[in-house]
Design brief:
The structure holds two protein chains of two kinds.
Chain A (H helix, E strand, L loop, with lengths): L4 H25 L9 E7 L11 E8 L3 H29 L7 H18 L4 H63 L4 H17 L2 E5 L5 E5 L4 E4 L2 E2 L2 E4 L13 E5 L5 E3 L6 H36 L16 E2 L7 E2 L19 H8 L13 H41 L3 H36 L1
Chain B lengths: L7 H28 L10 H54 L7 H22 L2 E2 L2 E2 L33 E5 L2 E4 L4 H20 L8 H47 L3 H27 L9
Antiparallel strand pairs in B: 1-2, 3-4
Helix pairs in contact in B: 1-6, 2-3, 2-5, 3-4, 4-5
Classes of the chains: A alpha+beta, B mainly alpha.
Chain lengths: 460, 298
């Protein structure tokens, strides 16, 4: 039992409020720290010891104010937004290659058929023939440019996958390291609040890259699994993601990367299923969206080539020298579409020995109005128009998705802030409250001291 | 959005997000006003983009057809002039035939008249070889050698004088619709040349050309028939020209309604966004400026 209980109570109160002040100060200091969760000192009245009056106050712990459900939803939201933002950014770049107002494949196609029409009115003119050849070259150039843009974007996405994997490995290591520190702090009975905040931030960063499930273990560490069930972090052990440049061939003809788990022994297990997040979006864009768009452009190019060549090489067709025409367009697809005809005299505008005959040139012009079976009954122009609109629709949809997920993410962020964020108004008010409590405890010491002096005076 | 606690950071984030969104809208609105185009990228209006592509194609096709029509009008106009002259030649030939059919006309006079008919025959061949920019309007619009051999060529025979193409020349007057511009010259001029040649030879022999009149009349009818056909086709092209010009205006109007910005509306939107941005910034300054610190003494 203390010699003079009020002094002991005052001393404990001073210590408790001093530590409360420290917690408030910590909150104020971290007002701008990303992911920081406000903390509260837990004070408890000390029960009576040997009498029926309590023994004052003691700080018994520290609360980290978080809502686990909001935190969990934020991880899902980060994945959704990461995927949507990546898709939006890359599709916005893709649609930039297909101008709406003037220029591009659509305009070049119209100019090609306009030049063919001029040939049909003036089949013997060398200048008109040269103009058609130039219009064909311009069209082929535009088609190649569009194909090259898609192919380059696919290669860039593939390279970005490698960078994302490298960044992801750094985050996985950070989470494993924070797990180690949390376990150690737990074992030592120290506060883990700040470590948990840092880990949560790392988890959120990881969730933006790949969809994850997080399971907390009894020792305070977390195990992290990819959406497909692959362990990314088990306790203090992080997995190592790797890319291998031995996948399917890209649009440029060189192999694309595979993403998987790489072991120290050189083993490699490819990640399966939908990954979500930025990685998932990159893989979807690289392996589906851009491939599909590339295939659509290839179909346009090969159909154009075949339709024009069929007229040009028709057995009845004749060039200026009375010979059956050679192929106008060459190449195997959009990426290598070229004008194969070197000499404008070789354009087969006639269907007789008369060089002024324009029957074959009229057949060439007629292609632009033909419903082509290869294009499911569409004309070349309609097909390209649909293709262009489809790219616009994909970009618009991606943008809408990104806006929606950004709104959801912002709402969850605001909700988290409402629970865990530091409010300076609250902290300053607390500061005054704690200051007053501290002053009162100091006053108690002063009063107790006076009483002791009085008591000692009696003795003297 | 219902929130219990609102922190300073939440206010800052909300303000940043709002100003960011408004600034984005401002950039877009400004681009619309400066370009006066509602559709900047395909994603602005995918269906509108497809429509703009289709209308631009339609415009390009109509423009091409308009060029064909203009070319056709020039060709048919040239043919009409030549056929009018050819008709006059045959009228003169018929007059000569009638004049020299009289038994009172002597052999010398008929032989002298044969010289005039020879000139008429030369003129008829020149008309049959009429060209526009080097292209023979009665020879399938081919360039190069004239479709009819010259009168003074050795072995000239009106029946085989035509060496041009046997097929007519056509252009597109509408998508998929071919329009004939020429008739092979032999179908027009060979009867006339044969009739003139017969008249010339009859007169040169000092005989009465009475028997040649029927052929001359028939040849004149053929020329008149072709001239009527040319006139009819010219009229059709003329009407088509007006239709296409109307069509072009219609297509351009439709295209404008899809892709062009309503300038008054665009400027009004730009002003609204500018105003919203100013209000947001002012409100943000007021909200962020207020702090409990202002009420705490030193």
């Amino acid at each position: 039992m203390a010699i003079f209980p009020p002094l002991t109570i005052a001393r404990e109160a001073l210590l408790a409020h001093q530590r409360s002040l420290q917690v408030t100060g910590h909150n104020i200091a971290n007002v701008d720290t990303p992911g920081y969760s406000r903390q509260r000192a837990v004070l408890r009245a000390v029960p009576p010891a040997g009498s029926d009056i309590g023994s004052g106050v003691r700080m018994v712990g520290l609360d980290r104010i978080v809502d686990r459900f909001i935190e969990q939803r934020r991880l899902g939201s980060a994945s959704d937004f990461g995927a949507a933002a990546t898709t939006r950014d890359l599709l916005a770049r893709l649609e930039g290659y297909f101008p709406v107002n003037e220029g591009g494949v659509g305009t070049a196609l119209q100019e090609f058929f306009a030049a063919a029409n001029t040939l049909a009115t003036n089949p013997e003119s060398q200048a008109v023939r040269a103009d058609l050849l130039a219009a064909g070259e311009s069209l082929a150039l535009q088609v190649r440019g569009a194909a090259d843009a898609i192919s380059t974007l696919q290669r860039e996405v593939d390279q970005r996958l490698g960078q994302e994997v490298q960044d992801t490995n750094a985050v996985l290591q950070r989470i494993a390291s924070l797990n180690r520190e949390v376990v150690a702090a737990n074992a030592a009975g120290a506060s883990t609040s700040d470590l948990r905040d840092a880990r949560q931030e790392a988890l959120r960063e990881l969730a933006g890259t790949i969809e994850i499930n997080v399971v907390e273990q009894g020792d305070g560490s977390v195990s992290v699994f990819a959406g497909v069930g692959t362990a990314l972090v088990l306790g203090t052990t992080p997995a190592v993601l790797a890319v291998r440049p031995d996948g399917a061939l890209g649009l440029d003809g060189t192999p694309l990367s595979r993403v998987g788990l790489g072991g120290g022994t050189g083993s490699f297990i490819q990640l399966a299923g939908t990954l979500g997040g930025t990685l998932g979006a990159l893989l979807t864009l690289r392996d589906q969206t851009l491939v599909d768009n590339g295939a659509d452009l290839d179909l346009f190019a090969t159909t154009l080539r075949d339709a024009v060549n069929a007229v040009q090489t028709d057995a009845a067709g004749r060039d200026l020298d009375g010979l059956v025409g050679a192929a106008f367009f060459g190449g195997t697809g959009a990426g290598d579409l070229t004008v194969a005809l070197a000499d404008a005299r070789g354009i087969a505008a006639a269907q007789s020995a008369n060089p002024g005959d324009n029957a074959n040139a009229l057949a060439l012009v007629a292609i632009q109005h033909q419903a082509l079976p290869a294009l499911a009954g569409q004309t070349l122009e309609d097909y390209f128009g649909s293709f262009h609109a489809s790219i616009g629709a994909q970009a618009r949809s991606a943008n809408d998705q990104a806006v929606i997920h950004h709104e959801v993410d912002a709402l969850l962020e605001a909700q988290r802030d409402g629970v865990s964020g530091v409010s300076l108004e609250e902290e300053f008010t607390d500061l005054i409250r704690v200051q007053r409590a501290f002053q009162a405890a100091a006053q108690l010491i002063s009063v107790a001291n006076t009483m002791l002096d009085d008591l000692l005076g009696v003795v003297r | 959005m219902i929130l219990g606690r609102v922190t300073q950071n939440a206010l800052v984030r909300t303000l940043t997000a709002s100003t960011g969104r408004l600034q984005g809208e401002l950039v877009r609105a400004q681009a619309v006003v400066s370009s006066q185009k509602r559709i900047q990228t395909a994603s602005d209006d995918p269906i509108g983009t497809a429509l703009v592509n289709a209308l631009r194609g339609e415009s390009s096709r109509l423009q091409a057809v308009l060029e064909n029509v203009g070319f056709g009008q020039a060709v048919l106009g040239t043919q009409d002039g030549a056929l009018a002259e050819a008709g006059l030649i045959l009228t003169r030939a018929r007059e000569i035939a009638q004049q020299f059919s009289n038994d009172t006309v002597g052999i010398e006079a008929r032989q002298a008249a044969a010289e005039e008919v020879a000139e008429l025959e030369r003129a008829m061949i020149l008309l049959a070889n009429t060209s526009i920019s080097g292209r023979h309007v009665f020879g399938g619009l081919a360039t190069g050698a004239a479709p009819f051999t010259a009168f003074d060529d050795p072995g000239f025979d009106p029946a085989t004088a035509y060496t041009g193409p046997a097929d007519p020349f056509t252009v597109l007057s509408a998508p998929g619709q071919e329009f004939r511009l020429t008739t092979p010259g032999d179908q027009i001029f060979t009867p006339a040349l044969e009739a003139l040649d017969d008249l010339r030879q009859t007169l040169a022999a000092g005989d009465s050309p009475d028997g040649t009149i029927t052929a001359l009349v028939a040849a004149g009818d053929r020329i008149a028939e072709e001239r009527a056909s040319v006139g009819g086709r010219w009229n059709r092209l003329n009407a088509r020209d007006a239709e296409i010009r109307d069509g072009l205006v219609s297509v351009q109007t439709r295209r404008g309604s899809v892709e062009d910005a309503d300038l008054a509306r665009a400027i009004s939107e730009l002003t609204q966004i500018q105003y919203a941005l100013q209000v947001t910034l002012t409100a943000g300054r007021a909200l962020l400026g207020a702090s409990v610190l202002d009420f705490l003494g030193p």
